[in-house]
Specification:
The protein is an alpha+beta fold. The chain has helices spanning 12-21, 64-67, 93-96, 120-137, 151-159, 183-194, 199-206, and strands at residues 8-9, 24-31, 34-41, 43-45, 53-59, 73-85, 102-117, 161-176.
């Protein structure tokens, strides 16, 4: 990933926060047919390992299950808020006419080693935790629980999936938030984003960088 220094985010807490807020990751692997990408909701365990651990599950029918070699290197891409930035939003454009369009975004690449976890206890635990987390985010009342279905049905569903665990070895963050622009131009872009349905990106641009 092209990463100019002024867009590099190295704070682990900020990188973990983006993953936690945007858990649908793109798992990138290399198999017999070349590059592959699977889109999976992950749970991040920040207290494990040096950089954290990612856990998720795959459909047992997914060809990736047969292609995973224990400990092989993988990358997971997590995308945060993103939006087009018009030059018209910069006050300086109207003075100098020397601005061009761009795209602001936040992204984290998690590099690590993957392990298959094909045991019912692990799979049940990850499903329960992911469900609890995202039912809460969805503000479902009452939240759905596995106990809403019969034990036999849940057992069949769990048997159809396998767990994966990724030990994160390296986190690379790119937070492209107009850091190379003047405060006045940043403020103009923030205001336009806030009024065009991109409040999350606007808030990220307003957030202190240290």
């Amino acid at each position: 990933m092209y990463l100019p220094a002024h867009f590099a985010e190295t704070r682990t807490t900020e990188l973990h926060a983006l993953i936690g807020e945007n858990p649908l990751g793109t798992l990138v692997t290399v198999g017999p047919d070349g590059l592959d990408a699977n889109h999976i909701p992950f749970e991040l365990l920040t207290g494990q390992g040096e950089q954290g651990v990612l856990q998720a599950h795959l459909a047992r029918a997914n060809p990736l299950v047969e292609q995973i070699v224990d400990g092989m290197s993988v990358m997971v891409v997590f995308q945060g808020p993103q939006a087009y930035i018009s030059p018209n939003w910069y006050p300086s454009k109207h003075e100098t006419h020397q601005q061009v369009p761009t795209w602001n975004y936040q992204v984290v690449h998690a590099h690590g080693r993957i392990h298959l976890r094909d045991d019912e206890r692990f799979v049940r635990g990850i499903v329960a935790r992911l469900t609890r987390e995202h039912e809460t985010r969805a503000q479902e009342l009452p939240p759905w629980r596995m106990t809403d279905s019969s034990p036999d049905y849940i057992a069949r569903m769990l048997a159809a999936i396998v767990g994966i665990e990724i030990e994160i070895e390296r986190l690379v963050g790119k937070f492209k938030l107009s850091q190379n622009k003047t405060p006045q131009d940043v403020a103009g872009a923030v205001d336009a984003l806030a009024h065009s349905g991109h409040a999350e990106l606007a808030a990220a641009m307003n957030k202190p960088l240290v």
